[in-house]
Amino acid sequence: MSQLDDRSPGAISQAAELGPLAFIDALAEMMPTPIVVYAGDGRITLVNRPAEHLLVAAPDRLDRRVLTFDGMDLWELITSKSKDAASFFTIEGRIRTATSRSEDTSFVVAPLATGHGAPGGAIVFAYDSPDERDGAALHPHPLDASAGAEDVSFLPILRLLVERLGSDGGVLAEIEPDRPTHGNTLAAVLDGEILTDFQWEMVGTPATGSRGRRAMVQANGLLAAYPDDSWAAKERFESYVGTYLFDEYGGRVGVLGVYSRDPIESPAIVRGMVRLFAARIAPSLRHLRAERDLRESEERYSALFEDSHLPIMLVDPVSTQILDANNAACAFYGHTHEDLTTMSVMQINTLDPDDVRKELSRAADGTRDYFQFHHRLADGSVRDVEVYSGPIAVHGRQLLYTIIHDVTERHHAASELERYKKELERLLRRRTDDLMKSNAELQQTTIASESFYENVGLELRTPLHTIIGFSDLMSRGMAGPLNDEQQVQTNMILDAGRTLAALLDDVLELSRLDTGVERCDPEQFDVGELIDSVALGIRPVAEERGLRLEVRMPQDVSLDAYTDRNKLEQIILQLLSNALKYTTAGTVTIEATYAEDECVITVSDTGVGIESAELPHIFEEFRQVTRQSAGTHEGTGLGLAVSKRLAGVLQGSISVKSEPGRGAAFTLRIPLRCS
User: Fold this and answer.
1) Which helix (H) or strand (E) holds 393?
2) Do domains 142-297 and 311-406 have the same CATH topology?
3) What distance in Å separates the CA atoms of residue 106 and residue 93, rounded to the nearest whole number?
4) CATH for 523-671?
5) Range 175-179, long-range pairs (CB < 8 A, 24+ positions)
6) pLDDT tens digits along 295-336
7) What contacts 19, CB < 8 A, 6 or more positions away?
8) CA 537, 543, 545, 548 torsion: positive or negative?
9) Please, which pLDDT band fits residue 507 given cuts at 50, 70 and 90?
10) Structural fold of domain 31-137
11) Among 675, 612, 610, 668, which residue's Cα sits nearest to residue 643?
């Protein structure tokens, strides 16, 4: 508290003469932390400026009170808890604020007593209020009002904090803006001595392990919890308490930490005390950073002005005089610096003087910052220039910074470009008309095609189902007994009908896929379970043909995917059916694995394979490849084409590899999540 005495001795001595409560009131007013003072009957006798946001209108009362979120008066919590508390105690609660918010807040309560030992009220410190850092910006602390960066000395405050806590070491570090885990040590003390040339390594300390909390307390076991804290390991510190310091926007600007070789017996009280000192230090640290940033900004501006390759000038908007110009401006206009800084902008601008004054006025009041002028050089030539201009305060004087860009050559090129542009537009209009006509014809063709497929589906399904149904009844003898020849002919009709129905289904499916109306309808499921289900249904077909069907999947791994289950099942069934069709002996294998964010499903067979010349056409419509030594098989020739379209709907792909005589392998890749 020595700094308080040095800066405001009159206020403290005067408060002491008025009695203990007046001294407390005066001290509370000077504190940057929210403080509320209660009298013995529960009346609020003092609320300092940072605590004003804690007061809200209380029901059935004329005054404002500190209320919890459920409407309970804070004084009721204080009186109920003070009966069992010997001295300081803490209250954690969610309170209402004057800004109609509810916030979690920590209070440290110091009960007061009369001379007879009866309750005499309480002093309440809201040291963890969320609005506390905002309050520091809205209500500047009076002791910081006149402090400049050159007056800031953090060592006395840090030493006082360490003494008050009975600790062994303390450190104050400024956090680097672009390195949040590194700090620049501003002050450090150890065993009552000031440490010079000491650099605190924040990495591995509780300061970087606080996980977003503003205050951090490690009451004991510091070395076990933070073995990488180099200072704690060297000095054998057992406990730590620290807090972040914030700027006016809530960003972290510093860390205040205190170490001790003994455990902390009252963590809440120690944490509150560190928060109080942090609130006292934060404004000075913010002021220090602001002045340093201003100085660096001025240095950067000076370097930018002098070293820029663009012509830059400072102009007085009232007198129109050029007050300063960089080397690039002197070279561009062909004047020396001495000559140029005695000239008016009217001497280089070809506009009428009244128009020049109007444009300067617009730039000065910020209504316009971009201009196009013709500027006259020292040799009499005139150049086209773009001017970017805006107000700037220099030593309390409102001037205009002006950046000049020579665009003469660009304007010449733009003229030529405009001529070519008009010719191109003429050609483009002609080409656009042709394309519009072609597009209209294409749309008509597409509509006609879609209508054709739709009508074909409607017109053919009914007679096809009639043919299939009646031929099936006749084949099973339900319409009367058939001789052998009639049975053969009836079966041929039934097979032809079924083939034609399958062809119709595939054609209509391709039509829907080509129109783009099909979408992925995702759901979460296990791909492995789906493969097992498809394999179970098709295994009898494989056994009937004397083939072995193998399913390979990772052991003890769930192949979860979020995609369209029905479309994936349709693709897998088609690939397996295709493999069984072209395999006369051996094994058909289906294998599923993960590859980064994809699910990879491979169906391979030991069939006769595919000729290399046929591979590029394997997914074409109505293309039924004749495999070596296998002849032509039944089918529509659309199964693989449909599968490839469905894979595209699932945002995946299908590829094939094959060697004649050694089988074929079809690989399906789909993302684990289908959007």
Assistant:
1) strand 382-394
2) yes
3) 7
4) 3.30.565.10
5) 175/244, 175/252, 175/253, 175/254, 175/255
6) 777 777 777 787 888 999 999 999 999 999 999 999 999 999
7) none
8) positive
9) low
10) Beta-Lactamase (3.30.450)
11) 668
